[in-house]
Hints:
The complex is a heterodimer of chains A (492) and B (167). Chain A is an alpha+beta fold and 492 residues long.
Amino acid sequence: MVLFRKVLVANRGEIACRVLRTLQRLGIASVAVYHPEDRNAPHVALADEAIALRAKVPSGAYLDRDQIIAACRATGAEAIHPGYGFLSENADFAEAVEAAGLAFIGPGASVIRLMGDKIRSREFAAAHGVPVAPSVTEDEAGQDFLARAAAIGFPLLIKASAGGGGKGMKIVRTEAELAENAALARSEAGRYFGDPRIFAERLVEEPRHIEVQVMGDGAGTVVHFYERECSLQRRYQKIVEEAPAPNLPAALRDEICGAAVRLAAAADYRNAGTVEFILGADGLFYFLEMNTRLQVEHPVTEMVTGIDLVEEQIRIAAGQGLSRSQAQIGVTGSAIECRICAEEPDRDFRPATGRIDLLDLPSGDGIRFDGGILVRQAVTPAFDSMLAKLIAHGATRAEAVQRLEQALVQTALLGVPTNLDYLLRIVRHPAFRAGRLHTGFLTQYAADLAPPPAHSPAALAALVAAALGDKAFRDLAFGIPEPHASIGLWRN
Amino acid sequence: MSYDLQRGADRIRLGIVGRRPHLTVAIDGAIHHVEEIETFGESFELRIDGHVYRGRRSLSSGEIRIRLDGQTFVFQRLHGLRDADAAGATGDDVRSDMPGTVVACHTEAGAAVASGDRLVTIESMKLQMTISAPRAGTVARIHVAENVNFERGAVLVSLVPLTAEKE
């Protein structure tokens, strides 16, 4: 079976490394691209070849379509894997890649465009029998929008049509707040996305975020790889994800997965995609959006299905179709992922920078660590704050939770503030252990998830250990300077 | 004899009470018995009041970081400790608690400053703020220049006491 001889990975960090590992396993030659600031990054070292891209700001390099396509030409790469973020959902790029006679490892440009537009994609979903939350869209008649929005009933959620990441999103609880919030959302939407169109939908209180991994061959066949629960979010961004969704009745699971397949099949979907839904406590679920790429949290699906989704993506892009039928895809056990980010959860998740000076990776049964970080690496504000992902699989959810907890304790990353301690507090929380998840979880339990009191036996031990690491303290404590005591410790 | 470390907003003092047969320290009015079982590279193993603790430790110019029991602790080093990058400074380093860029320097090396005098103006996350002298002193060194980026915890300015001699 010939897939491709050579593939270029148009990304960086953990996802570039993850794609490169599958290419290596399949015996496909690989090409990395990088900004000079990333010249020592792991993805550059992992690839068979690496091409430097010029750009004023580092992120610009990974967004430069022309240079990336030129890098394919220069190296003879036949296909491009875009990872997630950067150009992965850029329809113009997908088009340019195919126009250059290369394969884009992802869906076609028209589907990317359709799903990239929140209004059009909702209309498409509704037209194909996929439930959407009661909503109204803003059209030319601005005044009418308010009346129609009020008619849905409160609470309402107002969103930017072109938006994402929570920007331009407003919750409206009473009719009195409606006009002002609509105006605010419109102005934020215009500022962030260059498109002031907004829409309003029924707000589902304490919703769960359930999404379905789908894969289509582009010739009419679509399969699903079951669902993931991604309800734990801060600032509308996921930080803990799992598969399968805990406490989800089997009939409801089938219904949600079926709706996702229906949507993807209607779009003649090719390659990997994720259909996102919100699920209310009443068991009603609504289409949120479709992401036309590999998701950050895809490893939990790989852990429970035993299928390498990147390999499937490559097969489909190479015209080999899906490797298995729906009946051959099953779920074994439970898997949970934590996103390890350079941020300060105790200071409103403020992104942090620094230089990694100590890194201990976890290991053990069912543990997977997807990273793209090295000791001595600088963490700069130039890129996303996510450093790595820690995934634990177990025969049961309880076993996965216990393995994840152990692995979080094992992991050490010093030199840059991270959310590791916060993640451990989440994983140890009784409501998390019980699988009682919803998107307001981290806010609801904020007090429980706050840092422990500064006076604890561990804090005392850390203080003493810190002092003992300092030559100045040792000189005081042990009277005479100990020439050998400072080896491996602080040196003046 | 005592030694201070800073953790967040708190300054913590370790008083050295005894050295033999093992180290005894006073912290917050309580006495603790400390034995170092093993130190190997970045790993340490301690016995404190009979309990054994194993962890990992890293050191940089301004901070000592500890990973222990699934928790991360960061301490700032204080007085009497020489900064590797700023030999000659006797402590009293003025730091920024967030990464940013220097917009303007308002003083120069050798200048005498009073408590509250403006030292530098920085910009971080699109917010400008002025860093002032925490007490009177002489500016020993300015570690940054205008339009230069720095990281969280970076030493911006080192002060020495007006009357003190350099070590």
